[in-house]
Amino acid sequence: MRRLLVVFLLLSTAISAATPAVDADRLLDHIKFLASDDLKGRASGSPELERAADYIAQQFKEIGLRPGGDDGTWFEPFELTAGVTVGDGNSLVIADRTRSVRLTLGSTYYPLSAVPNDSPSIPSERDEKLPLVFAGYGLAAPERQYDDYAGVSVNGKAVIIFSHEPQENNPSSPLNGTRPMPQTTLYQKAAVAHGLGARLLIVVSDPTHSTDQGLYHAFEEVPDLDEAGMAVLRVRRNEMKPLIDAWGLDALAVQIDRDLRPRSQLIKDASVDYTEFLARNRKVVRNVVGVLPGSDPSKAGEAIVIGAHYDHVGLGGRLSMTPERAGEIHNGADDNASGTASVIEIARAAMSDRSRFPRTLIFVTFAGEERGLLGSTHYVASPPVSMGETIAMLNLDMVGRSRGAVDVSGLENTVVKEDLMAAAQATGGIDIKQEGPGAGRSDDSSFLAARVPAVNFFTGFHADYHRPTDDWEKIDKAGTARVATLALEFAARLAADRRLKH
User: Fold this and answer.
1) Residues of the chain with pLDDT under 70
2) Which one, of 275, 465, 490, lies nearest residue 396 by Cα?
3) Which residues contact 258 (CB under 8 A, 6 or more apart)?
4) 342 by DSSP, 3-state: which?
5) Which residues 6+ apart lie within 8 Å of 245 measured at CB?
6) What DSSP designation does 181 have?
């Protein structure tokens, strides 16, 4: 119950004299460096991400924080997979008794998922002529009375499916009207096939779309993939058309779209021969951790984490909203140089008025967020102050496009949210909204999973999100500074609240 009441107590604390506001010009200087072309989008595992980590650590040092990483350093290193190395000999042949289609990696097919080795010279997968099953759209949604896998076994076989879902443009569709079902994502489709024992999943653009939406160029420019426990291949429709026509798959799709009855079946005499030479690029990346010890010895054992991720998507590829522009620098000024710069300057402001922070503040910039919240997950597993002694977490992710307002999520358990509005007007001069994606969509999620109350600050998605156009010139520096000042004041009230007992 203590944790559920933390935000309530924080917001009901009387407003005290404010620490000087975060300096907007200094904050923008950090964003200019982190989002410069020299840092090439701060991709996980890149030398440029390491430069960013060193820069942040140097800022923490100059501010006067104490190192909070491993072995007395500023860093918490951990390992992740950052792309793949493509070896020679990759091949994919799909055939029946009379026809054969040979496809080329990066041109007519590419992997969405693989089971790579640590060396590109060793085949990760070599499947000799796997039998092939057509499984419609690869959907399993029994709650909507639809299952492409009902009545057909895919165990030990290759599976070919269409992208998207049937009746996706029909507002009366019982599957979900015109809104895509969660099961429609390729990740979910792969999970279903893998769970049923399939060895390989082949995805082809469905016949209702005039263009093939596969990202063949993106994989060629920036080789990267997920790991769904099996190989998942996107295959260019034009090359597959002779086999699709011979097997009548488009006609089956039309029938499925008409009555939502699956037509899954083993394709007679069809087989797949796939060989994969891919190696994981295992890289060490680093969270950067600085500590401001609490000014009250009786409370300094309890901590508030103020964090932001500092990685971005590098040269694009599968993590970009414009994958066709793979190879271009995605600078990530808003996402999330803005949050990282805010953390640095919140630390500077807090250090200038330490008496307002009886509890310890831990400032963390996380690596690996874009690859699945990996940095915050690592921090929660090995924090400098235990999760049991962590009172709350404040997360800043994309706070550079304020225009006078900020979305604050994670306040769902409090009945006095209006008090935050008043505090914002008194201290930050910024309006509070609660209309964004909600809590748990960024590194705050890792803390919520550890039962630590977490509040996320966010100024909204925009047309530059995960695109090469997210540049520092579009940052609202004054608004970003106001968001940072609001988070600073929010933290000060929590740090000083005498009613909070561990």
Assistant:
1) 1-19, 127, 412-429, 435-440, 498-502
2) 490
3) none
4) helix
5) none
6) P
Assess contact for 307 and 364: CB atoms under 8 A.
yes
Cα(387)–Cα(448) distance, integer angstroms:
11
Q: What is the 8-class DSSP label of residue 39?
A: G
Six-digit token string for 230:
């099996």
Where b means 16+ CB within 10 Å and e means fewer, 42-73 reads bbbbbebbbbbbebbbebbeebebbbbbbeee
Pick the CATH number of 88-276 from 3.30.390.50, 3.30.565.10, 3.50.30.30, 3.30.160.60: 3.50.30.30
Single out the residue of 80, 16, 59 nearest to residue 363, CA to CA.
Answer: 59
Q: Are 383 and 291 in contact (CB under 8 A)?
A: no
**Cβ 94 vs Cβ 237: under 8 Å:** no
CATH topology of domain 2-81+282-496: Aminopeptidase (3.40.630)
Q: State what percent of residues in the chain have pLDDT above 90.
A: 70
Break the chain into its structural domains and give their ranges: 2-81+282-496, 88-276
DSSP string, 21-38: PPPHHHHHHHHHHHTSGG
CB of 120 closer than 8 Å to CB of 90: no
Q: What is the pLDDT of residues 3-37, one digit of tens each?
A: 333 333 343 333 344 667 899 999 999 999 999 99
Tokens of 107: 């041109």
For 372-382, write each residue's pLDDT tens digit.
Answer: 899 999 999 99
Give Cβ neighbours of residue 406 (< 8 Å, ≥ 6 apart): 399, 430, 431, 432, 433, 457, 458, 459, 482, 483, 486
